[in-house]
Amino acid sequence: WLSVRNGDNRTMTLLGFGRYSFHRCCECLRCCGRRDPRPRTVWLGHPEKRDQRYPRNVINNQKYNFFTFLPGVLFNQFKYFFNLYFLLLACSQFVVEMRLGALYTYWVPLGFVLAVTVIREAAEEIRCYMRDKEVNSQIYSKLTARGRLRGSSTAGARRSVNQRVPADMIFLRTSEKNGSCFLRTDQLDGETDWKLRLPVTCTQRLPTASDLLQIRSYVYAEEPNIDIHNFVGTFTREDSDPSVNESLSIENTLWASTVIASGTVVGVVLYTGRELRSVMNTSNPRSKIGLFDLEVNCLTKILFGALVVVSLVMVALQHFAGRWYLQIIRFLLLFSNIIPISLRVNLDMGKIVYSWVIRRDSKIPGTVVRSSTIPEQLGRISYLLTDKTGTLTQNEMVFKRLHLGTVAYGLDSMDEVQSHIFSIYTQQSQDPPAVKGLTLATKVRKTMSSRVHEAVKAIALCHNVTPVYESNGVTDQAEAERHYEDSCRVYQASSPDEVALVQWTESVGLTLVGRDQSSMQLRTPGGHILNFTILQIFPFTYESKRMGIIVRDESTGEITFYMKGADVVMAGIVQYNDWLEEECGNMAREGLRVLVVAKKSLTEEQYQDFEARYVQAKLSVHDRSLKVATVIESLEMEMELLCLTGVEDQLQADVRPTLETLRNAGIKVWMLTGDKLETATCTAKNAHLVTRTQDIHIFRLVTNRGEAHLELNAFRRKHDCALVISGDSLEVCLKYYEYEFMELACQCPAVVCCRCAPTQKAQIVRLLQERTGKLTCAVGDGGNDVSMIQEADCGVGVEGKEGKQASLAADFSITQFKHLGRLLMVHGRNSYKRSAALSQFVIHRSLCISTMQAVFSSVFYFASVPLYQGFLIIGYSTIYTMFPVFSLVLDKDVKSEVAMLYPELYKDLLKPFQDLAVGFRASTGSIIMYGALLLFESEFVHIVAISFTSLILTELLMVALTIQTWHWLMIVAELLSLSCYIASLVFLHEVFYDVYFIATLSFLWKVTVITLVSCLPLYVLKYLRRRFSPPSYSKLTS
Predict the structure, then answer these.
(1) Packing angle of the helix pair 291-317, 829-859 (nearest 10 deg)
(2) Which of 398, 401, 358, 397 is nearest to 376 (CA)?
(3) Rounded to two decimals, what is the model's pTM?
(4) Are 307 and 339 in contact (CB under 8 A)?
(5) Which residues are catalytic?
(6) Residue 287 near residue 281, CB atoms below 8 Å
(7) What is the mean pLDDT of residues 668-682?
(8) Which pLDDT does position 990 carry in this prediction?
(9) N or C: which end of the chain has fewer CB within 10 A?
(10) Gap between the Cα atoms of 2 and 167, Å rounded
């Protein structure tokens, strides 16, 4: 037994089985004997049979353990050519024949890069370890035949608020008076509303919880699977006469990662560890590498190819004389600066700056950067995949319309409905004698009042809502429940639609004041309590798209079957009418969620016959769902249509303008939701995900290859049409026509996938990446969005009502969906453009010095002698030029307000990274070297001082020419670097420079000429670009 105390002094007790136990969080998730999942029998009261072993119930989200951390991190670094190249380069310096300088000039930069990477990975692993430890260290009380014992196999404090169910269980017993409990499933299915769960009937009737240890019974359960919405099993008690058999369904389950919200709960554990529903629906986290980093890695390979070619040319010009193969290696090392190791350092430091800027942005408060390695990804997104509930919508419903066929009531006419209800119950209380000679107007009014009353009564009874009474500081809970205090009552249900409907019936006079498993109480406007016995409930399923309830009115004994559901299924159930289809279409076009409400009166004989067949069908192990559905359908014929209801799901703030901004930026938006098709379609229209001018193609349900082929052909004939498809149809299409379907879907302006399982969301993201090669961004706020967020190139979590699981698993965390526009249009765009400029200048820096080395070697008869040695090589890429070049991470071409106002600027970034000025940048080094040889021919002994001074000044000047928006730190960086170089001329004069020579006027004017001439090609190119091919932002900045 395991017991957990809730925040309101309520406890959750778990009945363990076999060798089920909790282990320390540092242990890896492993199981005893990996075998295929299969059905199982869990025994209660049979100690001799409890010998099966199951996966250990621990959570482990770490990518490495203590032994694999360092090898794993190093492998992930050196599997890319960029880092592997510098490792081989540094190792080559241990060979005397290949050594060109001091070892520290190669090993210090490489060590610094690796140290930064290891520290960053270690910090992320520690954070992940602490999150796992918090979950795995929960303390439970173990109840045995000797009583309850406090115990836990992990160290940790006792958690007393919002404790989660630690394993998948069957609900056996509760202390609640209504014989049920509520469950919060926000981190499992993405819904914030409480779910009603029912215990096994025969165990609920036991006098005490300890009696569960005395009975002899067992649970037969299906094999572990990923379906969180369905379950098939049976509960059998052997020691009763006769033996008791009860069917088990999803209503009898308590899945792991859900939260017990009320009462004391006792359950038997079925699945643990890797067999948990929540674990099976979550993909493993992966290390994300940005597209920009991959392009830089590819550019490194191109530069390496150029390095090999130059080295071969140098040796060929020597006619391969002597030990030419050794000369090739020396030239490879000599020109190794062509691939700058400082590029990796600068880009990594730039990412840290971008992350800091995002966190400091006051216009998107609360934004957190959890992955600082991919901020450039935000600037090149082509597909945005978003969740619906809690992300686009607030999951708060507002009742907007009641339609009776001949008359409709909106928000401005609800007082008429209220007067009809009041008149009905006023007449019933007065019970006046029949008045002869009623006028026609009176008869019509009475008929309309009766119709309104029947509709409101059906809405007030046909639901799964339970009123819960809480203490408000003045009235305690027991007294509030006894007197049905309105101020203390809170409605809880599995769907927000249900709560909105019941709240509306309360506003018009018919109030739900009490409910348990077998009865329901309504209060009339006059304060009279109406009692109803609940005979049967048929809960809503995504297959049936409807829910029903059979109740008996205690005052009259009448048995009535009420049903509500989607118009597509209810149209064939209700009696013929000529207005249902048209009015449903009108309400749906307004973005309302439409429900059709109907009823059917039953005699006692009809109900008894139905009940016998229904109980028999529920006890079936094979094809239970089909048999139960067949029995229920026998009642669903010729029902009386009562009304239509229209409910609107409130959108998050500024969802419509944000989606419009993303569309104008060239980003295609796909909505992936676990909600039903009708609801998803309404939200897509309401949020303007689908514009008013676009048609919507609802992909009909297909079950085989032939149907999928026909439906795809029908869809192919439509143009500029949004697609709405269910998860089941999507699975069939991807199985048989994956390429054809993805090709058609990618051409759609918008796609809505409904009834998607968490793993299916991740599959869609993966297919988009594979088929299009474009970058994807996934946005969600619930635990069911984690797989999609982790699979996407860039995952964004929204911190909302559904908890923080999505935001903790995401690369970026925001507090509202509207912040996504600024995150992409401003920060994503700036991060990418700044990294592109930064990498171009670092590569330019390396090309300059490599070109100068090539010219120097050519002049000296192709000798493999270095031009600059020791400190000059390291200083060139650090203190002399690092600050001005790195200050480019502060540059921006347009203001943030302009970037938000013109999202079309974002489209320019969807092209691959390229630098058309590489040839001109390489020519800079040649100009400097040949200029030095030409102007200082008589002072050739000072070639190092001459060329190096010109090189530094050229680099500083080029940075200044490139900057578009000056920041005070840029000016400081330029002056600081220039000061450092001037100071080094004094301190290093004995090693590299002749201080008397560099103080001459001739040196100064000639170096100035060389510097200006070397910058000329880049300036000319920049002018020609602005004159004949100006960038898209140039008009906006003028």
Answers:
(1) 10
(2) 358
(3) 0.73
(4) yes
(5) 387
(6) no
(7) 83
(8) 56
(9) C
(10) 11
* The two structure tokens encoding residue 669: 């938006």
Residue 26 to residue 58: CA distance in whole angstroms: 9
- Give the integer Cα–Cα distance in Å for 7 and 19: 29
Residue 954 parent element (H or E): helix 943-962
pLDDT at 374 over 70: yes
As a whole number of Å, the end-to-end CA separation of the chain is 74
- When pLDDT is cut at 50, 70 and 90, the band that residue 191 belongs to is low
Which tokens hold the place of 1012? 């200006």
**Amino acid in position 453:** H
Q: What is the C-alpha separation between 406 and 409, in angstroms, rounded?
A: 10
pLDDT value of residue 672: 92
Residue 675 counted as an annotated binding residue: yes
Q: Residue 814 — very low, low, confident or very high, per pLDDT cuts 50/70/90? A: very high
What angle (nearest 5°) sits at the alpha carbon of residue 38, between those of residues 675 and 248? 55
387 annotated to bind ligand: yes
For the stretch 862-869, contacts whose Cβ atoms lie closer than 8 Å and that sit 24 or more positions apart, written own/partner, are 862/314, 862/315, 862/317, 862/318, 864/314, 864/327, 864/330, 864/331, 864/334, 866/100, 866/101, 866/334, 867/943, 867/944, 867/947, 868/944, 868/948, 869/101
**Separation between Cα atoms, residue 368 and residue 903, nearest integer Å:** 23
Annotation-wise, does 445 bind a ligand? no
Query: Which contacts (CB < 8 Å, 24+ apart) does range 107-114 have?
Result: 108/874, 109/341, 109/342, 109/345, 109/874, 110/86, 110/341, 112/345, 113/83, 113/86, 113/341, 113/344, 113/345, 113/348, 114/74, 114/77
Q: Is 673 annotated as a binding residue?
A: yes
- Three-class DSSP category at 887: helix
Burial of 272 (0-12, 13-18, 19+ CB in 10 A): buried
pLDDT digits (tens, 9 = 90+) for 128-157: 788 677 767 776 655 566 655 554 332 222
Phi-psi region of 405 (alpha: psi -120 to 50; beta: other; left: phi over 0): left
pLDDT band, residue 165 (cuts 50/70/90):
confident
Amino acid at the residue 147 = G
Chain centroid, CA 353 distance in Å? 24
Backbone angles phi, psi at 394, to 5 degrees: -85, -10
User: Which of left, alpha, beta for 606 (phi over 0: left; psi -120 to 50: alpha)?
Assistant: alpha
924 annotated to a ligand binding site: no
Q: How does DSSP assign 138-195, residue by residue?
A: --EEEEETTEEEEE-SS--PPP-SSPBP-SEEEEEEE--TTS-EEEE-HHHHS--SEE
540 labelled ligand-binding = yes
In sequence order, the 6+-apart residues with CB closer than 8 A to the CB of 219 are: 41, 42, 44, 170, 233, 234, 235, 236, 248, 268, 270
Quick one: tokens of 758? 């968490």
Supply 488's token pair: 């203390």
Once rounded to an integer, what is the mean pLDDT over residues 165-178?
Answer: 83
Parallel, antiparallel, or unpaired: how do β-strands 721-726 and 593-602 relate? unpaired
Query: Of 638-652, 858-872, 879-893, which gets the smallest average pLDDT?
Result: 858-872
Measure the CA–CA gap between 949 and 936, rounded to whole angstroms: 13
Compute the half-sphere exposure of residue 995: CA atoms within 13 Å on the CB side of its CA.
10
At position 637, the amino acid (one-letter code) is M
- Whole-angstrom Cα distance, residue 375 to residue 291? 11
Contact 449, 424 (CB under 8 A): yes
Separation of alpha carbons 353 and 996, rounded Å: 42
Residue 785 annotated as binding? yes
**The pair of three-digit structure tokens given for residue 301, joined into one six-digit string:** 């390979």
The span from the CA of 502 to the CA of 462, in Å, is 9
> What secondary structure does DSSP assign to 841-873, as a single string?
HHHHHHHHHHHHHHHHHHHTTT----SS-THHH
Which positions ≥6 away from 435 have C-beta within 8 Å? Answer: none
Give how far the C-alpha of residue 284 lies from the chain's centroid of Cα atoms, to the nearest Å: 14
Is residue 401 within a helix (H) or strand (E), and if so which, with residue range? strand 393-403
